[in-house]
Write a structure and sequence with these properties.
about 280 residues, mainly beta, 4-stranded antiparallel sheet, elongated, disordered C terminus, disulfide bond, Epithelial_Barrier/Signaling, NIDO_dom
């Protein structure tokens, strides 16, 4: 029953829970008004890799304080320490994010949010990019068959802390150039300074991850009323997780870049920006 609820979320390709915690508030009254009642349930389920929470709401007689979410101040540095789910206390029993009134499903691990970031974090094999202002981190842990900008047998992919990605060449310029001598992918570009552990990257052939990526690519074809036969065989995922502006640590940037290939065509389906500044 728990797994069926979790699989209602379109961002979950497969999940089989191995352990769960279930807490039920069964008509608990307001402290000085016994006729104001609250009936809801919290489920926390895990397969020991990912953890999801389910909120089931039946009776909410008062909208409450409006601070629905989670906080993990002592969690991994790669995680956002606070996440608000932005739920309306007046409509908890009638609204949903999975199509069933009164039911909400959220992923708690690796800080993946409602906007369907591809799961990231060290538990998925991510490495951390170098710390510093205008730093560059290069890696070559991908197949030579991977066509990057129509060319295979590339030597390395390099991530600039200023938000862009280059191929073969390590570049530390603050501003990326689209008319330069190097191949570059620019989902976003600004003068950012990595604090270490806030830029994550990996190459992957994990089938569950590739299924999520293919679903994103399928959205492109659905908008054009065409059918996609593309099936990723390998992908590179780079996540900029709350990277600050170099001289204002309160101005942060969070987005993700995915480059996926079937060794014939290459897509970059996801450059999902959560909040360009704060």
């Amino acid at each position: 029953m728990i797994d069926k609820d979790i699989l209602l979320s379109k961002s979950v390709p497969s999940f089989k829970s191995k352990e769960a915690i279930v807490i039920t508030f069964n008509n608990v009254p307001y402290y000085d008004k016994r006729n104001i009642l609250f009936r809801f349930q919290v489920v926390i389920a895990t397969d020991y890799k990912n953890t999801y929470t389910i909120f089931n709401y039946d009776r909410i007689d008062n909208p409450g304080y409006g601070n629905i979410g989670y906080a993990e101040p002592d969690g991994e540095v790669s995680c956002t320490p606070y996440k608000s789910f932005n739920l309306n206390g007046n409509t908890l029993s009638t609204s949903s994010n999975v199509g069933k009134p009164g039911k909400f499903v959220f992923l708690l691990t690796n800080c993946t949010n409602d906007r369907e970031f591809i799961p990231y974090g060290q538990s998925y094999g991510d490495s951390f990019a170098n710390e510093g202002d205008s730093s560059s981190t290069c890696f070559s842990s991908f197949s030579k068959r991977f066509p990057l900008f129509s060319t295979t047998n590339r030597s390395q992919v390099c991530i600039s802390s200023n938000g862009y990605i280059t191929v073969d060449q390590s570049v530390t310029d603050t501003k990326a150039s689209l008319t330069s001598y190097y191949s570059v992918l620019v989902p976003f570009n600004f003068d950012m300074k990595s604090r270490g552990k806030d830029i994550l990257y990996r190459s992957t052939t994990d089938q569950n991850t590739l299924m999520l990526i293919d679903r994103n690519i399928g959205l492109l074809h659905s908008q054009k009323n065409t059918t996609s036969s593309f099936k990723s065989k390998e992908a590179i995922i780079v996540t900029f997780n709350n990277v600050p502006y170099y001289n204002n640590r309160n101005m942060i940037f969070r987005y993700q870049v995915v480059i996926a290939t079937d060794y014939k065509n290459t897509y970059s389906p996801a450059a999902i920006q959560d909040h360009p500044y704060n």
